[in-house]
TrEMBL record:
InterPro entries xrefs: GAF, GAF-like_dom_sf, HATPase_C_sf, Sig_transdc_His_kin_sub2_dim/P
Protein name per UniProt: GAF domain-containing protein
Domain GAF: 25-167
PANTHER family the UniProt entry points to: GAF DOMAIN-CONTAINING PROTEIN, SLR1143 PROTEIN
Annotated Pfam families: GAF, HisKA_2
Domain of life: Bacteria
First and last residue of the signal peptide: none
SMART domains assigned to the protein according to its UniProt record, in alphabetical order: GAF (SM00065)
Biological source species: Novosphingobium olei
Amino acid sequence: MKPSPHPLEDDRLRELRRYAILDTQREREFDELVEIASEICQTPVSVINFIDHGRQWFKAEVGLGVRSTPLETSLCGHAILQGDYIEIPDTLADARMADNPLCTSDPGFRFYAGSVLKGANGLPLGTLCVLDHKPRELTEHQRGVLRVLSRHIMRELDLRISLEREQTLRREVDHRVKNSLASISALLSMKARRENNIAVRYALEDAISRIRSLSALHEELHELGCQDQVSLKSLFARIETGLQPLLSEGIELKISTSDVSVAPELANSLLLVVNEFVANSAKHAFSLGVGSIAVDIKVQSSQLALVCRDNGNAGQAEAERAARGTGLGTRVIQSIASSLNLVPQWHASGNGMELKLSGPLTTDVK
């Protein structure tokens, strides 16, 4: 007997498609569940199946060797109409299956037990079932295991939907943050170009620099997805590109880093230090508007060696002021260094400024 459609078949199929499980590859976590079901229930066949339009499709199976069969011969098509659990001790004694070729053939399926897989709206999607070639019954313990495993399957599928929804929301938020940062940067750039007061223009350029650095870190973290480490080489390639437009045409910027990945907190700290040094050098180091800024970041075996240099005209007095943290940028650098339990070292002798930040790190490095 061919299974009848569910009374809410259209709604049921929509719910099934919402889970996006049909025609996906085999996965070990589902294969293990049917292996457990088969072993506990002592049956040669166990299946996780979903009842689609015109077919039943198997996400995982033991002892069957196929991924789908026509709905006309589906035993589970009957099972999803029977509540939460169905057990048929002898299929040939059941009117729904007595003429089913899967049961009448040799060897046919003479025993069936299935725990129904239900979607979040309560509609049946398929079953976790076990089959045997001889009539029999399960013990209460075996029935309980089937029910527990079926609930585990749906919790896994519901979790995947939740994660996908969260990732979709995250992508939308990331997109809006990126657009907002770009808009703010553009507005500040426009304001800076029109500003005649040099002090105000410098303040606007500082803000633009920080926003672009923040945007670069945001993009890097966005591309990481679920990973928890930031590539310094990739991040500072973005930073170098992002800072260059803020420098005069005659000022060259070169940033080199170790090819390692670090925690986002450390990446952000290094980014801010570099950003402040470059911004200060661009404003104060080059009276003729020509020069170079070099940054070298080495992270190895939980040790940091950060060196920032320019070839401007800073002397000892400027180095001493930087060490005292009299400016906003140098105060930011001191604060970040303190959070890393490090002490910034400033040096200048008339041929440019040098900042060194070195010592052990407490954050993870890969």
